[in-house]
């Protein structure tokens, strides 16, 4: 048995690969659930009903999906151009904090709702972008690998936000909890479905994914960033300005992550806490990889990830299997996906 | 030399998608024989050898060693049958010693005792027997390319190879190293080993091999004993038509198309340019020769618009021209053929059409308001592929699938299709096979014929003598005065490249006086 490089990759294969990967991951997870003393089929049923089985479950899953789509896009757009943004978590928090700071201030009371929402979304995106431009600048100026710097800046960002929440941004009415002043009701995104937490941010996130797909596949900018990612020397020779291309990509990537934080604040919470994100930024990396860096795929991968987390919560409550099974499932899916991607490039010959 | 066939490939056919890499190929190899497999890039030589070695399974046909069939697609079976392969790109671990590299994969996994002592004895015996001298304890990372190749060969012999396949073994060697290699190969054949030499170089095939099989388009085009043939016939068989140096019509020199005066530029990791001046005339080829690393790359970068000159003036058709912008150079109608086609010329994982339009994507022909006109790009690529005979793919396939010659034809095509008035070509035929070289030369001369001004930066003196009208040498970032190419013999060019411009000038002037 041995491997042979495939000459071409059919679209069907590219679609089948992630599905197979997820299927294999779920089989392994089934084994683990059995080890934990529960029945695997029952557990999977609970996960599915817990994620989609009721109005509440479905809206919760979709609500969770929104920041995951955006952080997934943040990673996907950057990785395509070989900008290794591991810092979406920090960009998410700074985006959220910036929104709370601007929204809870004087501006929040004078602007009409649509303008205010637009301004806050932009504020979050800018804050996220700035937080990625910093490691990019270090890469361009000092050749420091942004894998390390963007990752480490996550902790810096989280500490800055914690400091703000305990200091200048602290809500005096929060009984001493470190949380920010809330944004006004006018700043909150309209609900998509009444009496749920699901807001129109979902539509915005899907629209952004579609838009990004169009930009990447149809525009000069998309062609040039792809060339820069695949062969920087050839891109430079073809007149693609390397620095400005990377800066644009970083603005998009950091912007998406910052926007994810902003939308989580004005869509769900209304204020910032230091546990606003259960690792949305890191999950975004996994989602981007699951989606093979394809924007539309990111939406599907985000839905899958959100469903696993929400469903596993509910399954855990009824069957007593630890919720860590959700992390295991998502991580295993990433590993099987990497194997699947490999098999889209090679075939086995007996 | 006995005539017993030790190796037989019978009716091998291998398809990759729609491309037929090998079409009903049959070859036999006698013991003690050196067989050359000759063919252009993309003729199917490497595929055939990969089938023999078990890297690929053939769609049809069989391989047999000593009359026994080899199971298809199993390298281990091929190794056990005594087939050894020396790849074009070495597969050695640079941090291990020669002995460790050679023994890798031969020691049993679950044994605590190392077979080092016996292994060393065997290695030393082999290297003495075949004159493959190399220190068993040297780290492979410290060895020269020639020595590494010897290690590769020893590795195959260590596995008791009786049939040795060498894939383009001289591609990475210097002239002297190649000579030494051939001596070793002949000695191996005398001692009863059988060798297959894959090559597209006529000289080495003629001097080394006993017999030649010529592959063309995946088929066996001919089989000859080297004693009964000559280079011209082989070249003809290889490309399927008579190879001739391109005939040059007399130059009809026109106006000055491009002029540089006192040009200085820093080189990024390359030699800088030091007050360089030259003129490009319409209908003329100016060749820049020189030993590599003397500023050619920097000069090319300036001409390509990827480097801004620090000082000096550029004039485009008599008007001042601001350098340092790829787009400005493109808009000025300057065709650009880069030195390293795989590094700078194309993005391997993008499609052929995307590579065709990448550098001109901002032109309204291929994009409007930032939206790419895919249909126009594909049409452009189709036109290039038809007119410049680019084979091996369709516009929407990845360019990685094309052979080197076809990639270079695409690069030429995307530049020449719109008849640029100025063309800068850096090492345009480096690493190409004979057929592709001729195609590239023909195209460049065609452009000259219709009045384009060409700058040819080349280290291949045959190419320069064949194509150029005037020659300047680049030495330590400075350019020699130009010399007419019809007075440039190898001796004069040698003096120019050595930087002895005074004597070169005397010779040139003397001959001019003599001629008049």
From TrEMBL, chain A:
An MF annotation (GO) of this entry: transmembrane transporter activity
The listed locations are: Cell membrane
Instruction: Show the InterPro entries listed in the entry.
Output: ABC_transp_permease
Coiled-coil parts of chain: none
Could you list the residue ranges that cross the membrane?
12-41, 61-79, 91-110, 116-134, 146-165, 198-215, 285-312, 324-344
Keyword annotations for this protein?
A: Cell membrane, Membrane, Sugar transport, Transmembrane, Transmembrane helix, Transport
- Which topology term describes how it sits in the membrane? Multi-pass membrane protein
Q: What is its main location?
A: membrane
Query: Which GO cellular component terms are attached?
Result: plasma membrane
- In the UniProt record, does the keyword Transmembrane occur? yes
Q: Which Pfam families match?
A: BPD_transp_2
Designated name of the protein: Simple sugar transport system permease protein
Automatic annotation (TrEMBL), chain B:
Tell me which residues make up the ABC transporter domain: 7-242, 258-501
Q: What is the lineage of its organism?
A: Bacteria, Pseudomonadati, Pseudomonadota, Alphaproteobacteria, Hyphomicrobiales
Q: Where in the cell is it found?
A: Cell membrane
GO terms assigned for molecular function: ATP binding; ATP hydrolysis activity
Entry keyword set: ATP-binding, Cell membrane, Membrane, Nucleotide-binding, Repeat, Sugar transport, Translocase, Transport
Q: Which Gene3D superfamilies match?
A: P-loop containing nucleotide triphosphate hydrolases
UniProt-recorded name of the protein = Simple sugar transport system ATP-binding protein
Domain of life per record: Bacteria
């Amino acid at each position: 048995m041995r491997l042979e490089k495939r000459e071409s990759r059919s679209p069907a294969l590219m679609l089948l690969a992630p599905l197979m990967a997820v299927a294999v991951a779920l089989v392994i997870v089934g084994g683990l659930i059995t080890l934990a003393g529960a029945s695997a089929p029952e557990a999977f049923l609970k996960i599915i009903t817990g994620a989609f089985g009721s109005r509440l479950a479905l809206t919760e899953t979709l609500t969770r999906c929104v920041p995951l789509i955006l952080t997934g896009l943040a990673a996907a757009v950057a990785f395509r151009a070989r900008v290794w943004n591991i810092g979406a978590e920090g960009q998410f928090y700074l985006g959220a904090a910036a929104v709370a700071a601007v929204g809870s201030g004087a501006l929040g009371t004078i602007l009409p709702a649509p303008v205010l929402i637009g301004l806050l979304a932009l504020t979050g995106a800018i804050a996220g972008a700035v937080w990625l431009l910093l490691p990019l600048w270090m890469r361009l100026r000092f050749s420091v690998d942004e894998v390390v710097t963007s990752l480490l800046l996550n902790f810096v960002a989280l500490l800055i936000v914690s400091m703000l929440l305990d200091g200048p941004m602290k809500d005096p009415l929060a009984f001493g909890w470190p949380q920010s002043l809330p944004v006004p009701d006018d700043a909150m995104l309209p609900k998509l479905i009444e009496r749920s937490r699901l807001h129109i941010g979902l539509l915005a996130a899907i629209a952004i994914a579609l838009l990004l797909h169009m930009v990447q596949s149809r525009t000069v900018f998309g062609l040039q960033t792809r060339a820069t990612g695949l062969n920087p020397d050839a891109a430079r020779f073809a007149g693609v300005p390397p620095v400005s291309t990377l800066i644009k990509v970083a603005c998009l990537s950091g912007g998406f992550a910052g926007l994810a934080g902003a939308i989580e604040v004005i869509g769900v919470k209304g204020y910032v806490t230091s546990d606003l994100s259960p690792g949305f930024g890191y999950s975004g990396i996994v989602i981007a990889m699951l989606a093979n860096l394809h924007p539309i795929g990111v939406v599907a991968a985000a839905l899958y990830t959100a469903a696993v987390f929400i469903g596993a919560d509910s399954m855990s409550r009824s069957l007593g299997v630890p919720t860590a099974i959700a992390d295991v499932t998502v991580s295993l899916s990433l590993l099987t996906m990497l194997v699947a991607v490999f098999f889209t490039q090679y075939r086995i010959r007996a | 030399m006995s005539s017993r066939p030790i190796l037989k490939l019978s009716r091998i056919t291998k398809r990759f998608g729609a491309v037929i890499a090998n079409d009903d190929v049959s070859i036999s190899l006698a013991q003690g024989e050196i067989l050359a497999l000759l063919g252009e890039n993309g003729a199917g030589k490497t595929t055939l050898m990969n089938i023999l070695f078990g890297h690929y399974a053939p769609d049809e046909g069989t391989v047999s060693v000593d009359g026994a069939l080899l199971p298809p697609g199993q390298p281990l079976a091929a190794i056990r049958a005594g087939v050894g392969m020396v790849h074009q790109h070495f597969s050695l671990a640079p941090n291990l010693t020669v002995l460790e590299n050679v023994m890798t994969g031969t020691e049993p996994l679950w044994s605590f005792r190392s077979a080092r002592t016996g292994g060393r004895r065997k290695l030393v015996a082999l290297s003495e027997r075949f004159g493959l001298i190399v220190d068993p304890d040297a780290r492979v990372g410290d060895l020269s390319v020639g020595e590494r190749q010897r290690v590769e060969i020893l590795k195959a012999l260590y596995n008791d190879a009786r049939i040795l396949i060498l894939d383009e073994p001289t591609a990475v060697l210097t002239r002297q190293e190649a000579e030494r290699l051939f001596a070793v190969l002949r000695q191996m054949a005398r001692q009863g080993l059988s060798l297959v030499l894959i090559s597209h170089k006529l000289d080495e095939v003629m001097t080394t091999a006993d017999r030649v099989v010529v592959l063309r388009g995946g088929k066996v085009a001919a089989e000859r004993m080297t004693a009964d043939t000559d280079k011209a016939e082989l070249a003809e068989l290889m490309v399927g038509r008579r190879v001739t140096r391109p005939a040059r019509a007399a130059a009809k020199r026109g106006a000055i198309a491009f002029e540089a005066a006192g040009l200085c530029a820093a080189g990024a990791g390359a030699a800088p340019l030091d007050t360089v001046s030259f003129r490009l005339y319409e209908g003329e080829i100016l060749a820049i020769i020189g030993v590599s690393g003397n500023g050619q790359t920097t000069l090319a970068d300036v001409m390509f618009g990827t480097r801004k000159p620090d000082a000096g003036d550029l004039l485009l058709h008599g008007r001042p021209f601001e350098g340092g912008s790829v787009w400005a150079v493109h808009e000025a109608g300057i065709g650009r053929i880069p030195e390293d086609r795989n590094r700078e010329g194309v993005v391997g994982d993008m499609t052929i059409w995307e590579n065709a339009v990448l550098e001109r994507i901002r032109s309204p022909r291929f994009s409007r308001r930032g939206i790419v006109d895919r249909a126009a790009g594909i049409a452009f690529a189709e036109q290039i592929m038809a007119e410049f005979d680019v084979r091996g793919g369709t516009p929407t396939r990845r360019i990685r699938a094309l052979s080197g010659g076809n990639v270079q034809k695409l690069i030429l095509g995307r530049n020449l299709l719109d008849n640029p008035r100025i063309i800068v070509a850096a090492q345009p035929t480096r690493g190409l096979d004979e057929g592709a070289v001729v195609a590239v030369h023909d195209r460049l001369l065609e452009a000259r014929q219709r009045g384009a001004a060409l700058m040819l930066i080349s280290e291949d003196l045959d190419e320069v003598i064949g194509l150029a009208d005037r020659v300047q040498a680049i030495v330590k970032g400075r350019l020699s005065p130009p010399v007419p190419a019809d007075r440039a013999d190898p001796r004069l060019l040698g003096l120019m490249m050595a930087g002895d411009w005074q004597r070169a000038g005397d010779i040139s002037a003397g001959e001019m006086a003599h001629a008049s």
